[in-house]
UniProtKB/TrEMBL annotation:
The lineage of its organism: Bacteria, Bacillati, Bacillota, Bacilli, Bacillales. It comes from Cohnella boryungensis. Residues 1-49 are annotated as: Disordered. Residues 26-49 have a biased composition (Basic and acidic residues). Residues 11-22 have a biased composition (Low complexity). Residues 420-447 form a coiled coil. SUPFAM superfamilies: Ribonuclease H-like. The keyword Coiled coil applies. It comes from the Bacteria. Residues 119-287 form the YprB ribonuclease H-like domain. The keyword Coiled coil applies. This is Ribonuclease H-like domain-containing protein.
Length: 451
């Protein structure tokens, strides 16, 4: 038996498994002495764990331990009022309930939104997928507590600390009704859900609702911003400008570099980037909350396309009066020099459905004039005007003029398309319309002559 113990001790020593006490061959050792020795070992290990690298301590990182083991935590408290970009974060306390229509659309049903029961979530992971191999090495989250906005960031130094980190996150999720994120519904939360399962947890109730601000951001800005990345949105619309920011795509590389040489200084930029993402989520929540509260008070939106999309977004979320005000404000704009004014066709179609041709006509005329100079002109406005003057205003010569011009533009554009069947069908339809208008105009002239 003692030979087996010797071999186990040699194997443990060779593998560097110093955390396991050596196997003793003293079968007469007293139980009390063993307990004292174990306590000494545990104390020594705890002391080694608490000796964090100076680069961690410099940015306020501490080691915490719960029933699942140790992990690292950094905590920053922003006393209200605190301004991030152009918004004071405390304003969400007054307008968070206005985010309810967004939550309903994303979750089909949703509890009342209480700002103190929202958890602003952003993860940094070892990869880009949502599969089991992608590990969140840092989980950042923010929440309102008392008169402050608190940002906490957990970090694991090795896979053995993951369960403790997830346990800590679950403790903070217990009283939360909504997770606020940017693409969190399709990335951050599925990644975390996988890690919960792999660590032995099973769902025992309904998960928190989502407020994923990527979707409203795309609805408003996909045609007016180069991209809808969070960094682009915050700089262009929230007045937040980061200096020397570490791109999120670099986070895995910097984490692996830290694992390689043990220097936490590599992670300073990752901590800063993650923290600012969480603060930006809160500022974005304020932006959408205020927009749904009083769009007119948000100030004039300079770009016509964005104003149109904002009005449509408000209408989609039940703010009919605010939407109508923005649509009417847009209808008064006369800028004809913009490169893309396709929004005019959509606005005119909306007014047409409502029977407000006095609003639709100026939009069709403006678009028709601007498309005349295009390389690949569109004929929708010409056709709408031809139909209006034929069936409503009963001015056949004007209707014929627009139809003939539409055919000229279609033939010019047809040279640029390879879809011969579609080109021929469009040409035939226009020629048929022109022939019919000419016939109607001729019969009308003859009837007028006999009268």
């Amino acid at each position: 038996m003692s030979g087996l113990r010797d071999r186990l001790n040699r194997l443990l020593a060779g593998s560097g498994a110093s955390s396991a006490p050596p196997v003793s061959d003293n079968s007469e050792r007293k139980t009390g002495e063993a307990e004292v020795e174990q306590k000494r070992t545990d104390s020594a290990q705890s002391g080694r764990r608490n000796e964090l690298h100076e680069a961690f301590c410099r940015i306020g990182v501490q080691e915490l331990e719960n029933d699942s083991g140790p992990f690292l935590l950094r905590r920053n408290v922003y006393s209200l009022p605190y301004r991030h970009g152009k918004y004071e974060l405390g304003r969400l306390l007054d307008c968070a309930d206005r985010l309810h229509p967004i939550a309903v659309r994303q979750n089909k049903q949703s509890e009342r939104i209480d700002p103190r029961r929202m958890l602003f979530l952003d993860t940094e992971t070892t990869g880009l997928g949502v599969g089991a191999g992608n590990v969140p090495f840092m989980i950042g989250f923010g929440y309102y507590a008392n008169e402050a906005f608190v940002v906490e960031q957990t970090l694991i130094r090795h896979p053995g600390e993951e369960r403790a980190m997830l346990t800590y996150l679950l403790d903070h999720m217990k009283d939360k009704t909504h997770l606020v994120s940017y693409n969190g519904r399709t990335f951050d939360w599925p990644v975390l859900a996988n890690r919960f399962i792999l660590n032995g947890w099973r769902s025992n109730g309904r998960e928190p609702g989502h407020l994923d601000f990527l979707h409203p951001s795309r609805a408003l800005w996909k045609n007016t911003l180069p991209s809808c990345r969070l960094g682009m949105v915050e700089g262009a619309r929230l007045g937040i400008h980061r200096v020397e920011d570490v791109p999120g795509s670099m986070a895995p590389t910097l984490y692996f570099q830290y694992l390689s040489d043990g220097n936490p200084a590599h992670l300073h930029g990752v901590y800063s980037h993650n923290e600012k993402d969480i603060l930006t989520l809160a500022a974005l929540a304020v932006h959408f909350g205020l927009l749904l509260s009083d769009a007119a008070a948000m100030g004039t939106i300079a770009e016509n396309e964005e104003l149109f999309r904002t009005a449509g977004w408000l209408e989609l979320h039940g703010e009919q009066l605010a939407a109508e005000q923005l649509f009417d404000q847009l209808a008064e704009r006369t800028d004809e020099s913009e490169a893309d004014n396709s929004w005019r066709l959509a606005l005119a179609a909306r007014y047409k459905r409502a029977g407000r041709f006095d609003r639709a006509l100026p939009q069709w005329r403006t678009f028709a004039e601007s498309t005349e100079l295009a390389v690949a002109p569109r004929i929708e406005a010409h056709l709408e005007l031809a139909m209006y003057y034929e069936h409503r205003d009963k001015q056949l010569p004007i209707a014929l003029t627009y139809a003939e011009r539409a055919l000229e533009l279609a033939l010019r554009r047809g040279r640029l398309t390879s879809d011969k069947a579609k080109r021929e069908a469009e040409r035939a339809a226009l020629q048929h319309r022109i022939a019919r208008l000419r016939d109607k105009a001729s019969r009308e002239r003859q009837a007028y002559r006999y009268d």
